[in-house]
Structure formats: structure tokens, C-alpha cells
Amino acid sequence: MSKNYNKIQNVFEEVGKIVVGQNYMVRRLMMGLFTQGHILLEGVPGLAKTLTINTLANVLKLDFKRIQFTPDLLPSDVIGTMIYNQKKTAFEIKKGPIFSNIILADEINRSPAKVQSALLESMQEKQVTIGDNTYKLDEPFLVLATQNPIDQEGTYPLPEAQKDRFMMKLNVSYPSKQEELKIMRRMTDLNFNNKIKTILTKKDITSIKNEINNVSVSESIEKYLIEIVFATRNPKSIGLEDAANYISFGASPRASINLVLASKANAFFQNRDYVTPEDVKEIAYDVLNHRIILNYEAEAEGINTREIVTSILNKIEINN
Prior knowledge:
320 residues, alpha/beta, Rossmann fold, Helicase, Ruva Protein, domain 3, 2 domains, five-stranded parallel beta sheet, 14 helices, 15% strand
């Protein structure tokens, strides 16, 4: 058993003291944290996205900043700017909220492209340039962006190339009846104790990251991953003639990279030091769903990316 496996379970338990359900979301957020992959969350309001992220940051004792994206937001509001100090008669750097460990970009699609680009550049380069100075961002650095699928007026949808920079896109769903009953009782109890304790330190996070990095991926699994990604680009090659009629563009090479990283993390969370095909299948949709671009014909016929990914996984077999 990994020396950090029990600590991971303790994180889930501690987050569960505040957040009801959403184990899937918490698990994926931690995968992103430990593999340096950013996460895009899509879901209607009120599904505890912000609460979950804030709680996780507290359990991990990491600096957390929430940025509410609005149409009037400027890039300097995110990364920082130069301010003139009259006493010193010189310009000084005022760092923005991006200088933190966990960033919640709330409703990212409400700000124009210039602001989105400033954030996404920080995600890719892990650094920020203000004036003539470049600053490295603290480790770990994780961006969790949310977007609301039901409000389209006054929004600036993320371009497909920018979505590709997110390791996974999660579709956060409604809670079950039992979970919502528990939520209702907990949130209407004015004496509810919302105190939680720290489980992991930055040193622990680095240790877990190294353990995940050492999870082995066999050559047959690697080839299996490549077959999946290539099938999104050319479904006809595996006999999926119908799927080929619905796909405009398949997944980029970032999909292959992130499939490996997420599969390793999934194996680690199940206390294994090797990846199985089941690990790949479990995370495939989250890694691929925002990277497969469907055409108008798919939209007209009600075909979604989940159906495409499912058909690919059902068709491709792993060769030992």
C-alpha cells in the first residue's frame, strides 16, 4: 500500500464533512492537482462547485483565490499591473489574484477573449509577465474554471483551442434525492459545524505527485491510448462509419498526454502502481469530451460526444 493512500482517503472524508456527494468532482479535481492539469467544470448554478473547490483548498492548506469573471474585467485584474508610487517616484508591481495555488475562475465565459487569454497563458506557461518582469507562479498551481450552460446571453464562449488547454472538462450533475435531502438538512441547520482540518501539506502533495509519476504504463496500454485518440480523428479506420459523419475535428495530441496522466492518477487512487484498461475507460470521456468537435449534423440528430467516445471504447480492443 502506498504511504500516501490513506491520506488521500482522509481528504475525501474531510471534504465530505462539508460537501454532500460530488465524489466524482472531488476525485477529478485532485487528479488535476496531482498531475498539474487544469479543470473546466460545467453545470447549472447551485451544485456546490465553488463550495467544493474552497473546501478542498482548505483541506490541502493551499492559497485559494476566487475571480468572478464579468464583461468589464480587465487582464490586469487577473495578473496584476504596474502602479506608480509617488513617494518613491517609481513604478511598483501589484500582483493580481493569479498568484495563488488554486484559482477559481468563476463563469469564465462571461469575460471577453483578452481576459480569457491572460488566464490561459498563465496556465500554459506557469508564469506571468508584468511590465518588463516575469514571475514564476507558485507550485502547485491549479486553475478550476466554471461555466454555466444555461446562460448564453452576454457570454463569450471559450474557443475550442483554449478549451484544449484544460486537462478535463467535467459535467457536474444534480444530486440524488437522498443527497439533496441531506444538503437541505445540513444547510438549514444554523448550528452546523463547518470546521475542517488540514490533511495534506505542500510536501505531501509533492510526494504524491512523485508516486503518481512512478505509476507504470505498459506498452500495450500506451498503444491502446493512441488508438483511442486516433479513432476520434478517423473513426472510419475502426469501422465507425456513422461517427465519421458527425465529427469535424478529433482530439489533439494533448489528449494522449492527459489520458496517460489521468489514468496514472486513477490507478494511484485505487492503490495500484500500474495502469489498467479500466483506468483509461473511466477517465476517457472527461479527457476527450471537450476535444472532439462535432458538426451541425450531429447537433441536428442529437448526437453528443459521450456517445462518440462510448462507441470508440466499445470498438477498440487492447492487444497484449
